[in-house]
Structures are given as C-alpha cells and as structure tokens.
Specification:
The chain has 177 residues and is an alpha+beta fold. It has a single domain, classed as Beta Polymerase, domain 2. The chain is built from 5 helices and 5 strands, in the order αββαβββααα. Strands 1-2-5-4-3 form a 5-stranded mixed beta sheet, with helices on both faces. A hairpin with a 2-residue loop joins strand 4 and strand 5. Helix 3 packs across helix 5 and helix 4 runs antiparallel to helix 5. The longest helix has 24 residues. The radius of gyration is 16 Å and the shape is globular.
Length: 177
C-alpha cells in the first residue's frame, strides 16, 4: 500500500528524544491505566542514526480486549487509528499522527506479553545503539531504499527485512552464548 507522504530519510535530529518524551507523557495521560510499557523504537530512537522523521512508539498493554476504549482515547489526543493493517498483524493496533500531510508519530499498540514482537524491536534498537558500524550500514541502506522506493512504504519496509533479521539473529545468538 503506497502512502501519500514520501519516504524521506534525514540526518539525526537531537530533538527526537524529547519529542518522544512529550508524546509518551500524552499517551500515559490518555491510556495510562492500561499501559505496561512505552518504548521509543525505530531509527529516531538511535542517537546519530539517519531516519524518516517519524517518532516510532511501541506501547505495551495487558490485553487488546480494551481496544475500543484505547482507540477512542488515542484518537482523542490526535492519532488516526488505521485498522486495515490488522489483516497482516492482527496482534497490533496501529495509529499515526499527521501534520501538514506528513506522518510525525506512529504507535504500535501490542500486548506486552507478545514477547516476540516486543523483544525483537528492543533488541534491534539496542543493537544499533551499541554498534555504530551496524547503525551506519543501516543508515546507508535506508538512504538507498528511500531513493529506490519513493512513496511505497510497504516495499521500503520489506526491503529492510533481511538486514533487520540478520541484526536480531546475531544479537539473539550473542545473548545465548
């Protein structure tokens, strides 16, 4: 599914961590009683890494059974709920915040007990934070893919999968040894 906002990778912005902190506070005020964890994930969570300027937020909740109220409250603080992505990822509720036709924030709402999803995102983020060489390789790949895929977010994301899987696999092997 092509997006209306183009894929643009930009140099790291020192404001990204504070933008996450501000948004985390807003999310906690809106749905705090259901939240079991809020993490800044994705490339904007890695100091020095070039990224699409979209603050990626992973929110863990005890259960998605509360989705109707969570959706209502997140929409109430300016997020758009995008249910069509649940066909591919039924265990995730996806939200995006747009400003002047561009995505600025996105929330991946999942059950905190979904360790595979939760741990994989944190492991990838932490691997990039710990190894500037891997982060540099990833930045290079993202610039190349953004040029190649323009507005096709699905193709862009799919093309990063092999790299991400390799980083996560190596990190998991290192944890086991």
């Amino acid at each position: 599914m092509a997006s209306v906002d183009p894929i643009v990778v930009v140099p790291y912005d020192e404001a990204w961590p504070s933008l996450f902190e501000e948004e985390r506070d807003r999310i906690e005020r809106a749905i705090g009683p259901w939240v079991e964890g809020i993490e800044h994930v994705g490339s904007t969570a890695v100091p020095g890494l070039a990224a699409k300027p979209v603050i990626d937020i992973m929110v863990g909740v005890k259960s998605l059974e509360n989705s109707p109220i969570l959706v209502e409250r997140l929409v109430g603080i300016g997020y758009e709920y995008v249910p069509e992505f649940e066909r591919l990822l039924p265990f995730r509720r996806y939200f995006r915040k747009m400003r002047v036709g561009r995505r600025t924030h996105q929330i991946h709402l999942v059950e905190r007990s979904n360790a595979e999803w939760w741990d994989r995102h944190l492991l990838f983020r932490d691997s990039l934070r710990a190894d500037p060489e891997i982060a540099g390789e990833y930045a290079h790949l993202k610039y190349e893919l953004s040029d190649r895929f323009g507005e096709d977010r699905e193709a862009y994301a799919d093309a990063k999968t092999h790299f991400i899987s390799g980083v996560v696999r190596r990190a998991q092997e290192n944890e086991r040894s």
